[in-house]
Design a protein that fits this description.
358 residues, alpha+beta, Cytochrome Bc1 Complex, Chain D, domain 2, three-stranded antiparallel β-sheet, 16 strands, 16% helix
Length: 358
């Protein structure tokens, strides 16, 4: 096993929201653009709750169909108890009333006092909300109306990457029954491998990623004999995602396949809930951009882009967030401004810039 330490910068040649001068570029010494192999991508996801809409959690230190939360643990993490209702997804652990979701025991968090509270999510990095697929609840459970903005690991094309509970630290246990059968685990869950990951997503470090050797005898013919692992967990694609950006059909498959969550934040009561954007505040922020983009947003001849002609706050916000999270570009002034803005400030200034379109 070896640590990946070569870190390159993400290419944003296709994005042009910068300060004065040329488009944002990042190149090797030979002039060839370098690209990140990994990305932190986002989705808005509901999570599993009880009938009173109190949040439910899983514990990484549990085994499948076995709780390892003892009496002291249960004072903070009370068991979610009930009965079998015929659901294939939610069943009691044998000999108990303790309910599990796809073999993962479920708990409450004592500090959650009201419906919608998610204070237990990512506690000590071992307690997690359950982002269950639609249709996998029963009469004792539901999916929340509150949504979580979940940041998860993808490749550069925003194709989701997954881990497998049946793997052990630094060891993959996902192979086809024979190297050429095309019907086994490796055919459904192709391995992810790259010799150089490039720029790493925010919230990760080079020490989080290792390269492991796969069993060359058992490996599918033509597939990599090495694999990237995140914190010791080998990474895979899911074939039914069909290489689509942000498709997450593999999450919670059979209870043993999971997205790699990097961060999660409560965002609202439904998909239409968005913070109120303050264009007055955005106008004040825009004064830092006007020297290049002009007060009317039309820029200068041969200089900054005509940002005032975009007219779409969402697109402007997307570009600013790209620079904030992924950019260290040629124009350090504009990149520095983006990195200094909070999420709400980016929304405010994007909303203001959108009003400049005539």
């Amino acid at each position: 096993m070896k640590t990946l330490t070569q870190i390159t910068m993400v290419s944003v040649a296709t994005l042009a929201l910068i300060g004065c001068g040329d488009s944002y570029k990042d190149k090797n010494e030979d002039g060839v653009s370098k690209a990140s192999t990994l990305k932190a991508s986002n989705r808005n996801a509901a999570f599993l709750v009880d009938t009173d809409t109190m949040s439910l959690y899983t514990f990484d230190k549990d085994a499948l169909n076995k709780s390892n939360c003892d009496a002291e643990c249960q004072k903070i993490w009370p068991l979610f108890e009930g009965a079998n209702t015929g659901s294939e997804d939610i069943k009691v652990l044998e000999g108990t009333d303790h309910l599990a979701y796809r073999k993962h025991p479920l708990y409450y968090f004592a500090n959650d006092k009201a419906p919608g509270d998610v204070l237990g999510n990512n506690v000590k990095d071992v307690w997690h909300l359950v982002h269950a697929p639609a249709g996998s609840t029963d009469s004792q459970t539901a999916l929340s109306k509150t949504l979580i903005k979940q940041t998860f690991l993808t490749d550069k094309d925003q194709r989701a990457l997954y881990t497998f509970d049946n793997d052990t630290n630094g060891v993959s246990n996902c192979y086809d029954s024979t190297p050429t059968s095309g019907t086994g685990c490796e055919s459904i869950w192709p391995v992810f491998y790259s010799a150089d990951l490039g720029a790493l997503p925010e919230g990760t470090t080079a020490a989080d990623f290792t390269v492991i050797n796969r069993d060359a005898v058992r490996a599918k013919e033509g597939e990599p004999t090495q694999q990237v692992a995140y914190k010791g967990k080998p990474l895979y694609y899911f074939t039914p995602d069909n290489k689509e950006a942000l498709s997450t059909k593999g999450d919670w498959v059979k209870g043993v396949w999971h997205l790699v969550e990097l961060n999660a934040q409560k965002i609202g009561d439904d998909t239409t809930s968005t913070p109120t954007n303050n264009t007055d505040a955005g106008k004040q922020i825009y004064t830092n951009c006007a020297s290049c983009h002009r007060e009317d947003g039309l820029g200068t001849p041969g200089g900054a882009i005509k940002i005032g002609e975009v007219g779409d706050a969402g697109k402007i916000e997307e570009l600013l967030n790209f620079m904030k999270n992924d950019g260290t570009g040629k124009n350090s002034i504009m990149v520095g401004i983006a990195k200094g803005l909070s999420e709400q400030q980016i929304k405010d200034v994007s909303a203001y810039i959108a009003t400049l379109k005539k």
